[in-house]
Amino acid sequence: MWSQLRSWARGLTGRTAIESDMDAELRFHIEARAEDLLREHGGPGLTRDEALRQARLEFGAVDKAKEECRESRGVGTIESFVQDLKYGARVLRKNPGFTAVAVMTLALGIGANTAIFSLVDGILLRPLPFPQTEKLVDVTGTYPKGAFVAMRERVTSIEPAAYAEGHEFNLTGHSDPKRLTGTLVSAEFFSVLGAKPALGSTFLAGQDHAGQDNFVVLSDSLWQRRFGSDPSIIGHPISLEGVNRTVVGVMPADFRFPSAKTEVWIPLRNDPSDTHSYWAGDFLNIFGRLREGQTLPRARTEIRMFQAHVGELFPWPMPQSWNANISVVPLATGLVSDVRGRLVLLLGAVGLILLIACVNVANLALSRAATREKEIAVRTAMGAGRTRLVRQLLTESVLLAGIGGIVGVLLATEGLQILKIALPPDTPRLAEAHIDWRVMLFTGALAIVTGFLFGLAPALHASRTAIAESLGSASRGAAKSVSQALRGALATTEIALAVLLVIAAGLLIRSFWTVSHANLGFRVATTATARITPNEEFCSDAQRCISFYRELVQRIESHPGVNGAALINTLPLDGRIAKRSLEIEGHPPDSSAPLPLVWLNVVTPEYFSVMSMPISSGRTFSAQDETSAPVAVMSAATAHRLWPAADAVGHHFRFSGEQEWRTVVGVVPDTRAYSFSQNAPDLFDGVIYIPFTTKATMEQGGIPSDMTLTIDTRLDDRQVQEILRTTVAQLNPEVPASDVRSMTRVVADSVATPASTAWLFVAFAGVALLLGVIGIYGVLSFLVAKRTREIGIRMALGAQKRDVLWMVMREGLKYALIGISVGLVFALLATRLLASELYGVSPVDPLTFAFAAIVMGMVTMAACYIPTRRAMKTDPLIALRHE
Amino acid sequence: MDKNMELLQGTLDMLILKAVSLGPLHGYGVLLRIQQISKERLEIQQGSLYPALYRLEHQGWIASEWGESENKRKAKYYRLTAAGKRRLLAETEKWNRMANLIAGILSTKPEEV
Predict the structure, then answer these.
(1) Which residue of A has its CA nearest to B30?
(2) A567 and A705 share a domain?
(3) Residues facing residue A650 across a β-bridge
(4) How do strand A243-250 and strand A215-218 relate by DSSP bridges?
(5) Which pTM does this prediction carry?
(6) Is the peptide bond before A596 cis (omega within 30 degrees of 0)?
(7) Residue A197 and residue A219: Cα distance in Å, rounded?
(8) CB atoms within 10 A of CB A829
(9) Eight-state DSSP code of residue A270
């Protein structure tokens, strides 16, 4: 054992010394033998040189013996690996064309995988950046403040915390007013996460009770942009939504919970006396930290118990379905549950690309192996065994894959930046994705596996041929059928995989096209939008608020280039919704059945004309409605739902909590305001429009204070922004005009997720097609080159160009047809995985399948073109002289 | 009997150990010694001698050092180590047992069964 280690160590450290020792020893042997031969048969018949020659002959293959010596000493593996590596590098350098194509192909495959893996790693795999992250859990389902407070008091297995995203606050008192995105959080939000502020402190227990909640924690980016990174801001009040809140802390730049959009964290305002806000206001997301000794299953059981009884606390009956399938899952899982499926899809797609790349390089290597037959035959004759040859060829493959991997990482670094832009910005943990040692490790492993994957078949094949062939007869005659069959199979696989990706991309694009070209029911082109958001407090005086808005709309309309302007509280496809329940005249509320729930749109009279919404029956609003009895317009489906038997116009309803009845004065067609397929969310009974008057009260009591301006104009966003900035500032310098976007932009943003998935798949399919073309081209070129002689003979015997054309095309067609058929079958089985990403198109959409088959067929034909033309130009005379 | 007999598989190591047990030898010397003892009746592939020497050295049964040959040239000499001595004894004993056994089987006559 010891001697083995020593000999091994010596082998590693003094490699060159041992090599020269070995040379000297063998030389001594041969010379000694030669001297003996001279002594025995010496004389004029045998010269010294001849004796040496004979000694060498007797000895046999010196290199083979040396190789065996190295192996028997046990360092052969490492030593020969280094040797193989050097040899491989030399071979690759000598074939720059092959090397470049192979490296680029592999770099594309490995790079795409690295980029997507870095996303998967950052979003799905990496633990959350909090201490003892394994104890953080997510309570699926949402609860109003009252229910959360009850949970905090009763549940013992976890320490819960709550938050509500997407609140907005006007920051005033420093330069221009600014609309901030904030997250309402319970007092223990930061402490449960274990997040420490970069400056100051976070919230203390009890700071989420009404009256003790005038505090705020700032995000790092807001602190830098708005407060010039001034540390003395801690302890000072800032004016948010007209309320002074003391800045208690600034979070570090890498704290982005619940998402990177949050600019301020503001305590919940738990006020049991405000029944609406306490039991029906924000529905909060809940997470928590397992207490000492508690487990996830126990927390799950306890939360389910809690859920069974929490309904009794509500001042009104809660539906059975509310939070019915509540569970507790690890927080990291809960946060990203929406994106997991999509990321796995992307990973699958790039996996396919890598497979195609491997097949491609394997094909290239096979073609090249044919030209290397002589080299390999020489190496065999010099004493290289089959395993040795395979090892050498595999080392070369892995080296190639390694270079591909390095270039791939460079591509991936760029690719990740593009991905981060392409993916919707609200993708959770997107900012955490980056290329680091974990990703590098993955890439390294991937490169090695890739090297084996594409190297094994050609290596085994080449070494087998080497044994079968003798030096002289290599490469003469007809194409070798085995290697041609293998190459054909590889090309076919490539086409099949490419077809699969093209179909996936086709389905996603069709789905995306379907949704984005649906008739939305309102005008998208030449509509500009902007959020005009006075403080809530400003709008508590309804008359003042309405006057401000009316004046604003008039001034905007008077600008040249503006054809019309209107206001709405919740812009279509913007993600914001105002809910309101109502009571129909003649149908007294029944305590067992919930009241009809509608999406309440508060609009100015011009809204319908500015958005080009036609009227189905009755009328829209007019200036008179501001002073007359309250009126409403509803969508056709809503009218039908509430008054199934009759025309809704002329009927009455009232919103819960109000006394006055509203008259339905008109019906408008349904639009796709909530999503590309729905006018309102599932739980809703319809969509109602009411005029923006002092009676336009929302669920929480007051009139809406955050209206969106819609403008019919051909001016671009910049011009609109400029008009708005000056106009609003003249009217009220405290009011921000934010989120200036064309309606086209609003629509595009609402499909950002399916759009990004679709475009990524299109990119992947493009790469797959490109690689497929290279593959087919390679196989056919090789075929033509191999059969030049045969083609020459055929032509000499009278074959026409047409026959030659057919001969080559037939081969290409064969691969294409088999590949496309196999690809279509794969796709039939695989595209159902895409179902969740498809809207309005079946996963086995025949049109898309046919399209993919045609595209692939045309692309393969194009790939056949150059080799075919070369074959047709074959000159029989030259071909027959060939070799 | 043929003058030259092919070496039985796996016996070369044993012969090398025996050869160097009679005194340190260089590689060529090992070859000559085996041929001399066998009275030139064994054919040894010269190319396979050195891998065997390296293997035995790697296993610690023989050790090597550079010395001077009969005709004043630098040559690598192999000698048996203590472990090699034990190994040679064990191998010899095993071989004898096996040879007797096989010989016994082969010399069996029909009536003895």
Answers:
(1) A29
(2) yes
(3) none
(4) parallel
(5) 0.72
(6) no
(7) 10
(8) 10
(9) B
User: Is the domain of A180 the same as that of A271?
Assistant: yes
Higher-confidence residue of A882 and B93: namely B93
Q: Work out whether the CA dihedral B28, B32, B35, B40 comes out positive or negative.
A: positive
Best mutation target among A57, A66, A72, A382 (most B Cβ atoms within 10 Å) is A72
Backbone angles phi and psi of A682, in degrees to 5: -50, -45
CA A468 to chain CA centroid, nearest Å: 49
In chain B, how long is the greatest CA-to-CA distance? 63
Query: Please, what are the domains in chain B?
Result: 5-112 (1.10.10.10)
CB A571 within 8 A of CB A704: no
The span from the CA of A462 to the CA of A366, in Å, is 8
Beta strands in A271-325 (DSSP E): 284-290
Measure CA A507 to chain center. Answer: 17
Which of A30, A54, A74 terminates a domain? The answer is: A74
Considering A318, A337, A356, which residue would you say is the last residue of a domain?
Answer: A337
Quick one: A476 and A569 in the same domain?
Answer: no
Residue A505 φ/ψ region, left for φ over 0, alpha for ψ in the -120 to 50 degree band, beta for the rest: alpha
In terms of domains, do A344 and A320 share one?
Answer: no
The count of other CB atoms within 10 Å of the CB of residue A309 is 10
Model pLDDT for residues A315-353, shown as the tens digit of each residue? 888 877 788 888 999 998 888 877 888 888 889 889 988
Which amino acid is residue A415, in one-letter code? Answer: G
Interface of A with B in 34-73 (CB under 8 A): 35, 58-62, 64-65, 68-69, 71-73
At residue A239, φ and ψ (nearest 5 deg) are -95, 110
Give the ranges where A121-215 is alpha helix by DSSP (H). 145-154, 189-193
Strand, coil or helix: A391: helix
- Whether A343 and A332 map to the same domain: the answer is no
Max CA pair span of chain A: 138
Residues A448 and A369 in one domain: yes
Domain, as residue range, for A595: 534-735
**With contacts defined as CB-CB under 8 Å, which chain B residues touch A32?**
26, 28, 69, 73, 75
Interchain CB contact of B74 with A (< 8 Å): yes
Could you tell me if the ipTM is greater than 0.95? no
Judged against a pLDDT cut of 60, whether residue A310 lies above it is answered with yes
Q: What would the pLDDT profile of A388-437 be if each residue is shown by its tens digit?
A: 778 888 888 889 999 999 999 999 999 899 888 888 877 778 888 888 88
Residues A270 and A373 placed together within one structural domain of the fold? no
Note whether A433 and A130 are within 8 A (CB).
Answer: no
> Read out DSSP for chain B?
--S-EEPPTT-HHHHHHHHHHTS-EEHHHHHHHHHHHTTT-EE--HHHHHHHHHHHHHHTSEEEEEEE-TTS-EEEEEEE-HHHHHHHHHHHHHHHHHHHHHHHHHT--GGG-
DSSP string, A404-467: HHHHHHHHHHHHHHHHHHHS-TTSTTGGG----HHHHHHHHHHHHHHHHHHHHHHHHHHHHHHH
A707 in a structural domain: yes
- Give DSSP secondary structure letters for A744-787: HHHHHHHTHHHHHHHHHHHHHHHHHHHHHHHHHHHHHHHHHHHT
Of the candidates A28, A60, A65, which has its C-beta nearest B28's C-beta? A28
Please name the helix (run of DSSP H) or strand (run of DSSP E) that holds residue A162, with its range, or none.
Answer: strand A158-172
Between A259 and A528, where is the model more confident?
A: A528
Nearest Cα residue to A148 out of A330, A264, A281: A281
Alpha helices in A74-188 (DSSP H): 76-94, 96-120, 145-154
The 8-class DSSP code of residue A64 comes to: H
Total domains, chain A: 4
Q: How far is B9 from chain A (nearest CA, A)?
A: 17
* C-alpha to C-alpha distance for A386 and A402, rounded to whole angstroms: 24
